[in-house]
Amino acid sequence: MSALLTDRLTAGAATGPRLAVDLDAIATNTRTFAARTPGALMAVVKADGFGHGASAVARTALAHGASWLGVTSIGEALALRADGLRAPVLSWLNPVDADFVAAVGSGVDVAVPSLAHLEAVTRAGIGARVHLHLDTGMARDGAAPSEWPALCRAARRAERSGVLRVVGVMGHLGCADVPDDPANAAGRTAYAWGLGVARAAGLRPPLRHLAATAATLTDPAALHTMSRVGAGLVGIDPSGTTRLSPALTLTAPAVGTRRVVAGTSVGYGHDWHAGRPTTLALLPLGYADGLPRSTGGRAEVWLAGRRRPVVGRVSMDQVVVDLGDDAVLPGTVATVFGPGHHGEPTVAEWAAWAGTIEHEIVTGIGARVARS
Ligand SMILES: *Cc1c(COP(=O)(O)O)cnc(C)c1O
């Protein structure tokens, strides 16, 4: 059992966990991508702008070189419209019974990956703007190459009848984060074939887009008339080739501290034992707030001028930090991650501790964390 030499738990700190978004960093990143994109730049703001706030990222990107917005669902596109964003928006992943009527009514372009989707969009009424979506090698979203010629012919028939316009053709590369992976050349070839088939069917789509963040940074041959960039705008470079600016800082105030004797066990399962008398600080955020439970035993935070290890398991709502013989006042704010300029851990480090990618960390911050 632990003997409490001091126990300074407070009833609650003045402020709780907080996620700050640096829109200047997003502006800087957007300019980097605009300069590297010969065609148009689409700001991909799916998943709430990769956890950074979809509308804020969208507005910032549009002010610094992006001219398009991209999201997966029609719901996300309509939320941007409701927030006053009037730029062109593409939604590319929807079930066949999605609200294409609302999309067309709000001027939202939709991707069409199958004949069933083409029929659904055709039924939505006059005026749809569609981007035919080809699977260029991931066996994920987009039409299988075997279905592509029929899809192009049917889309051309619909276009000639005046019910819709095919304004784009899109593909996506599955291995662009590894620039010399042969799958990239295969994906580019598949996309070029898809463009040729569309052209032979009589389609003349001005928006031809294959590259996302990694290909835009490393593979000029993948650039057509538009790039769809999400991760890069928020400072994540999957290719590891380019210095970008991370935009998130996650902080939490110490709820309190306690002095414990050597041998004290901490947290669920008593996974960690104090090897000496030490001071522990309690932070009020855990895996429900986006700190992966799998980081237990590896993670660190910045608190009172130093990195401090997170000790014991990450709980749903809280973590414990080892301060050694240092003391902090309750309410002292810890930096869980930030850009790394002052020694604090980065999102990239949290991703490494969790055995995942930065994308999963930034999109996983829980709803009860205050945003600013
Ligand atoms: C998420 C996504 C993007 C953006 O990719 P990043 O690597 O984050 O730039 C582009 N296209 C499609 C189809 C996507 O799903």
Describe the structure.
With 372 residues, the protein is α/β, with parallel strands linked by helices. The protein folds into two domains: 23-234, TIM Barrel, CATH 3.20.20.10; 247-371, Beta Barrel (Lyase, Ornithine Decarboxylase, Chain A, domain 1), CATH 2.40.37. Helix content is 28%, strand content 23%. It contains eleven helices and 20 strands. The protein has helices at 23-36, 46-51, 54-63, 74-82, 100-105, 115-123, 148-160, 182-200, 213-218, 347-354, 358-362, and strands at residues 6-7, 18-21, 40-44, 68-71, 89-91, 108-112, 128-133, 164-170, 207-209, 226-229, 248-253, 256-260, 265-266, 272-273, 278-283, 300-303, 306-311, 319-324, 333-337, 370-371. Strands 9-8-7-6-5-4-3-10 form an eight-stranded parallel sheet. A six-stranded antiparallel sheet has the order 1-12-15-18-17-16, with no helix packed on it. Helix 1 crosses helix 3. The longest helix has 19 residues, at 182-200. Bound molecules: pyridoxal-5'-phosphate (PLP). Pyridoxal-5'-phosphate (PLP) binds at residues 44, 46, 92, 172, 212-214, 228-232, 238.
